[in-house]
Amino acid sequence: MRRRTFLQSSGAAMGGIVFGAGPGFAANAEQPRRGGTLIWGHSETTQNLDIHGTATASTLRLLQNVHDTIVTVNHKFEVLPNIAERFDISPDLLTYTFHLRRDVKFHDGSPLTAADVKYTFERIKDPKTAAVNYDVFIAAQSFETPDDHTVVVHMSRVFAPFLARLAELGAGAIIPKDSGSIQGTKPIGCGPFKFVSREFGNKAELARFDQYWQGAPYLDGILEYEVTEPTVRLTGLQTGQFHLINDIPLERLAKVKADPALQVKTWFPLCWAFLNFNHAVKPFDDPRVRQALDLMIDKDALMQGALWGGGVVTGSPSFPSSASYDPAIKPRKQDFAAAKALLSQAGIAPGQLQFVFKVTTNYPWHVQAAQIMQAWFEEGGVKATTQQLTWADWLSQCWIHRDFEVTMMNFFTLWEPDFLYFSIWNTKGSFNYRNVHDPQIDAWTEAARRSTDPAERARLYKQVQARVHDQTHDVILWFRDGTVGARPNVGGLDQLVHPNGSNLEFRHVWLTS
Amino acid sequence: MTYLSRRLILFAITLLLITVVTFVLTNVLPGDVATMILGTRSNAVTLAALRHELGLTQPLVVQYAHWLGRLLHGDLGTSLIFKEPVALLLEQKIAASAVLVVLSLLIAIAIAVPLGIWSAVHRDRWQDMIGSGLALAGISLPDFFWGIVLILVFARTLDWLPSSGYASPIDDPRHALTYALLPSITLALSLMAHLMRMTRSAMLEVLSQDFIRVCRAKGLGAGAVILRHALRNAITPVLTVAGLQLGYLFGSIIVVESLFNYTGIGWLTYQALLNRDIPLVQATILMIAIVVMLTNLGVDILYTLLDPRVRLS
Amino acid sequence: MRAFRTPKGLLGVILVLLFAFTAIAAPMLIPGDLATMINILARLKPPSLAHPLGTDQLGREMLWRVLLGAHTSLVIAIAAVALSIAIGLPVGVLAGYYRGATDHALMRLVETLLSFPALLLALTISAVLGPSERNTIIAIGVAFSPYLARIVRGEALRIVALPYVEAARSQGAGDWRIVRLHIVPNLMAPLIVQATISVGFAILAEAALSFLGLGTQPPTPSWGLMIQASRDYLDIAPWTALVPGAAVAMTVLGLNMLGDVLRDVLDPTITASF
Predict the structure, then answer these.
(1) A351: alpha, beta or left, given left = phi > 0 and alpha = psi -120 to 50?
(2) Is the pLDDT of residue A377 over 90?
(3) Rounded Cα distance, A10 and A324, in Å
(4) Which one, of A265, A295, A312, A492, lies nearest residue A382 by Cα?
(5) Beta strands of chain B (E only): which ranges?
(6) Are C190 and C151 in contact (CB under 8 A)?
(7) Are C151 and C157 in contact (CB under 8 A)?
(8) How many other C-beta atoms lie within 10 A of the C-beta of residue B193?
(9) Rg of chain B's alpha carbons, rounded to an integer?
């Protein structure tokens, strides 16, 4: 109930994520203590370690501690100085001047200067890098470094989301000059922890960086174990094998919260999820077919079934507290009659449509959701078979090669509306693996970049959402709750979660024993 | 030509054929090496260039020759997902699996042989029923199911042992044992069952032989008779079964290590297959096949040495 | 026939008949919806009068799923064993009958394949072809064929040496005739024993493949898949693992018992492999 009323009153830029706490939370009001290695049971496997190349929330969760961004945001998503202690924007929004701090060091001890920032930005802009956030610099014409601690970015046209997007790692993390070639194997940055090692599919190790400009973190280091099986992860926490885990299995959340021996933090939202159709594959290029499949899904039941109530059904993927969130977009109710009618309009007879629903085991609740949807599709006269893929396999097949018919995915850290709408629904967006090509959406997302009026931008993004819903380009399914569980000796949990709701900042965390 | 030298030549031929089969199998794995390497930098141009560079456009026979050549020089390539030399990965994981294999063999032999003897001695009586029944049950249950039951009992309910993970026996021997115990017991279970049945039937055969009856008639105690004479004669078939079962064991190890997240060769093979890491798949499959073949060869030789009556052609 | 009157024989026959009946009858008697009906409100319910064997994580009745799972297992196992015979029989007969160079060459190939653990071979083939019910059959069938081939060869060698077969050959009877009339019929006994035991192992192999995600895919009611899905809920819903596990155990147990008894009846000299 609390969440629903909260959503309806959005419009104002209230606080970003809403935190809830388990009963054990208050137990840790002790003083921070230096020392100890935190053992973290991570719910996903990390992938590409190159901060510019990686698109996975799992890797970002780790790299959040290795890199630091030029600017940052608070929980209200106001852009704040970070590595840049001051930034000026010209009135015409064509010139951004960043004044860098003088005390920032990289992990190899070298000081961070304007040359590093210029290198970083140019690397992202360079098409050869194939950076996920390449479009952040699409309007950046030139980078100047009048002195060692000043960087000037000249834009060829207004690019409104520029500053906000620099608050996210993919665009704003500053790497040392010429370090591009090693970032994939040994990431180096200026964040609170140094990268030590990573064993793919198994674990990673980070060590304290004493010369971190905001002060060395309390922990000596972090040992990240990639444990994708939810119960193994939870058992690890309960037996003390892990100090902390993210993503408590939702069907056990109530029990875990009631456990006085554990601390639990929940927050909303962690991510949002949607059902995808490959627009380059017939008949999914036909909006009637897509809408028919949408009509077969009972979103509330699906959310209950896959998330055990740990989420909220939504028709809009915008961050709930942002101005572009549109509560008026209601997900379609389940209606088999209407669905079948649409299918026959599209020339598809009952039982004729068959497809493979690819789903990744990286998110076990997706596998559940797929099976639930499959049962409904069958009721609607559509034969779907699922295919479970590993994360790496899904990324290779669906993301890179776009070889799929139907799949589903969730997205994290997309609080910035341009990051969200452009990347996902613009024809040229880096996350548009579904081959969505909608000239209207292209026009609106471009216009939103050039608009200097926040209200106008919000309006444009609302139009995009409405169109996505009308045309059923994808089916928005839910927002999911985030959870973190920790042993009693872990302190600093209230500052652990980044405002984007997904990344974890271990520099605030300490171990009391 | 002596038996041994004939055997060795056959061994060499089989070895070569193993490399051929491995190469053929892994080259029809879908999932593109080039895509795995380039990741998000993949597009038609870069993929084509990399494929050419990797020699993937040459005829298969040529590729095989190059691959074999590299193998003989000890170059096993680099893992696409771990981004480390495959040889290094294998080295690390072999030690882990060796612990499991040795431990499970010990457990299996320690339980199965006495049980088999006990059953044979009390043939067709209730002891035999129980023993044989247990053995039959042992080979009928999937080993991963056993593993799950063990996890349920020992890790979740009793909390005596961890349900997943691995520690190196060199760096951390105490923890190494706790992590290896449940997987070893799981592996040992079906091994135990086969071993028990074999021991029992070998013992039965020996016990029915005349000279045993003579010993008994002469008044030698039953225990002494069994231990001294029968066991010695029963060793050969038991060894054979143990050896042959190793082949099966290396299949089971994949499932069991994955179940327990025990990072050994089996786990590595599974990760490689799942993620289409072709260089790693080639190396792990090759290694397992060679180990199994060597084991079979070893058992053959041991068999010949132990039983002078056998000089098979 | 006396062998069948032992407890082992009786139990084996009963279990196998039970399995066969369930496998054949279940899809016909149980309406499709019952097994796939997802009922979120009734998830992970323990066995009770309302839910005889409990429900799984999506609220589906374990009872229907485990019964239908028999059908999946039967189809895959029998098809796989049939495939392994289709490949292994000709190879074994050719090697055993012609001996000499043919035998050496074929046996080299068979020995090579036998160096790859059956499960590993099946896993690789499944990864190559892509996981599905059909490909699971192919994977297991191909993986089992070398074992079949070796046994058939051994038997063929023995049969070819029999006096009356030698006689037929010296009388100039055609090879194909001899194979058809003398070799193959004499192979039937050991083949039946091996096939029975192989079906059991095929069921175990399919369960392992599905458990590793390289076998049947959801929502197929497959015992291996059910065990895989149960991993997450072991402590709160152990029946989701125990029910399919018991089903596999009973079926394979029955098949092994039957195989043992058949061997005693048909030919005690056979040692079934694996």
Answers:
(1) left
(2) yes
(3) 9
(4) A295
(5) none
(6) yes
(7) no
(8) 24
(9) 24
- Alpha-helical (H) ranges within B122-263 are 126-140, 143-150, 173-207, 210-217, 222-225, 231-259
Structure tokens at C14: 């009963």
Chain position carrying tokens 């956030």: A133
Q: CA–CA separation, A24 vs A40, rounded Å? A: 19
**A373: part of which helix (H) or strand (E)?**
helix A364-379
Sort out which chain A residues have CB atoms less than 8 A from B41's CB and list them: 53, 128-130
- Residue C180 backbone phi and psi in degrees, to 5: -65, -45
The answer to whether B97 and B184 are in contact (CB under 8 A) is no
Which residues pair with residue A86 across a beta bridge? A99
pTM (predicted TM-score): 0.81
ipTM comes to 0.83
Q: What are the chain C neighbours of B293 within 8 Å (beta carbons)?
A: 115
Q: DSSP code of A182?
A: G
Of A346, A343, A314, A347, nearest in space to A328 by CA: A314
CB contact under 8 A, B281 and C124: yes
At A48 the three-state DSSP class reads coil
Torsion of CA A485, A489, A491, A494, to 10 degrees: 30
pLDDT per residue as tens digits for the range C62-75:
998 999 999 998 89
Cβ count near A423 (within 10 Å): 21
Task: Compute the average pLDDT of residues B296-312.
Answer: 67
Residue in B with minimal Cα distance to C206: B142
Which residue in A230, A370, A374 is closest to C232 by CB distance? A230
Report, as an integer, the average pLDDT of B254-281: 87
Helix/strand/coil for A144: strand
Of C58, C130, C236, the CB nearest to A372: C58
Torsion region of C262: left, alpha or beta (phi above 0 gives left; psi -120 to 50 gives alpha) = alpha
Determine the average pLDDT of the residues in A70-95.
93
- Chain A residues with beta carbon closer than 8 angstroms to that of C36: 375, 378
Task: Count CB-CB contacts under 10 A for residue B78.
Answer: 17
Closest CA to B193 of B109, B121, B103: B109
| Phi-psi sector, B31: left (phi>0), alpha (psi -120 to 50), beta | left
| pLDDT of A84 above 90 | yes
